[in-house]
């Protein structure tokens, strides 16, 4: 932990530039580059209600609604939106954002996550999260946050799988879509990241997957081992 932060210089705000991974790239969202593929991903009928259930938007099934959203998202600096692009196909399969960017205090959050059917529950989705966390800590951030509706059990399970620590619930925190949101808070802090980063690197390595794509060791197992030292 940091006892004396007198000379803490703050962190670097994230730049509007691509972040390259093994399986995916995170590209600053651009309607002319990502619009068609991203609309196909987010509007796919399989699971669409669940994908949008806890997002501010209603399901984007009309192209005009999606176009209005992506035009605004492309000009936003906070949230800073990225398209999640499959490196093997060049297609955008989802989107996410870095948000509530507080460089002075070294705090940043990942949010607005929408991973389409081709991305959800894949190693590429895990890498999409990893790349944002790695950028945050490489840029001098002290804290990386994940927040979600406390009723969103899959999101809370994902946060724990990704190595975030549950910190509590802010009751009656927000009103959205005409309902109350109690918000569950999770975080990773900078002192935890080196061990977690090593676990992610081991999990994402091709050697961790068999010929059928099955994982040899789970991320939970690797993170647990890393925390034990």
Structure description:
By secondary structure, this protein is an alpha+beta fold. The chain has seven helices and eight strands; from the N terminus they run E-E-H-H-H-E-E-E-H-E-H-E-E-H-H. It has helices at residues 31-43, 48-52, 63-75, 123-138, 153-161, 193-204, 219-228; strands at residues 19-20, 24-28, 80-86, 92-102, 107-115, 143-149, 165-176, 179-189. It has an eight-stranded mixed beta sheet with strand order 1-2-3-4-5-6-8-7, with helices on both faces. Strand 3 and strand 4 form a beta hairpin. Helix 4 (123-138) packs antiparallel against helix 6 (193-204) and helix 6 (193-204) runs antiparallel to helix 7. The protein is globular, with a radius of gyration of 18 Å. The mean pLDDT is 96.
Please describe the structure with a list of short key phrases separated by commas or semicolons.
alpha+beta, 8 strands, 28% strand, 34% helix, 229 residues, 7 helices, globular, 8-stranded mixed sheet
Write the layout of secondary structure elements.
Elements: E1 19-20, E2 24-28, H1 31-43, H2 48-52, H3 63-75, E3 80-86, E4 92-102, E5 107-115, H4 123-138, E6 143-149, H5 153-161, E7 165-176, E8 179-189, H6 193-204, H7 219-228
Parallel strand pairs: 5-6
Antiparallel strand pairs: 1-2, 2-3, 3-4, 4-5, 6-8, 7-8
Give a short synopsis of this structure.
This protein has about 230 residues and is α+β, with helices and mostly antiparallel strands.
What share of residues are in beta strands?
Answer: 25-35%
Rounded Rg: 18 Å
Q: Taking strands numbered 1, 2, ... along the chain, how are they ordered across the largest sheet?
A: 1-2-3-4-5-6-8-7
Question: What is the mean pLDDT?
Answer: 96
Helical amount among residues, as a percent range? 25-40%
Number of E-type strands: 8
The H-and-E topology, N to C, reads as EEHHHEEEHEHEEHH
Count of alpha and pi helical runs? 7
The gross shape turns out to be globular
N-to-C terminal Cα separation, in Å? Answer: 17 Å
Q: Strand count, sense and closure of the main sheet?
A: 8 strands, mixed
Classification by helices and strands: alpha+beta
Question: Segments where pLDDT lies below 50 for 5+ residues?
Answer: none
């Amino acid at each position: 932990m940091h006892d004396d932060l007198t000379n803490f210089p703050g962190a670097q705000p994230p730049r509007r530039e691509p972040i390259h991974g093994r399986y995916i790239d995170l590209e600053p969202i651009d309607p002319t580059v990502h619009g068609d593929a991203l609309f196909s991903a987010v509007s796919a009928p399989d699971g669409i209600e669940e994908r949008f259930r806890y997002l501010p938007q209603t399901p984007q099934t009309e192209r005009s609604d999606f176009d209005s959203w992506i035009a605004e998202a492309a000009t936003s600096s906070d949230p800073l939106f990225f398209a999640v692009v499959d490196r093997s196909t060049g297609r955008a399969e989802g989107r996410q954002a870095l948000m509530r960017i507080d460089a002075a205090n070294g705090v940043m959050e990942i949010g607005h996550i929408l991973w389409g059917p081709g991305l959800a529950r894949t190693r590429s989705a895990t890498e999409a999260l990893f790349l944002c966390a790695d950028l945050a800590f490489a840029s001098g951030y002290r804290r990386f946050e994940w927040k979600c509706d406390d009723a969103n059990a899959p999101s809370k399970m994902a946060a724990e799988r990704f190595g975030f620590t549950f910190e509590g619930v802010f009751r009656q925190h927000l009103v959205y879509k005409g309902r109350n949101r109690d918000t569950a808070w999770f975080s990773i802090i900078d002192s935890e990241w080196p061990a977690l980063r090593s676990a992610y690197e081991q999990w994402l390595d091709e050697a961790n997957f068999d010929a059928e794509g099955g994982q040899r060791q789970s991320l939970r197992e690797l993170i647990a081992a890393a925390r034990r030292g």
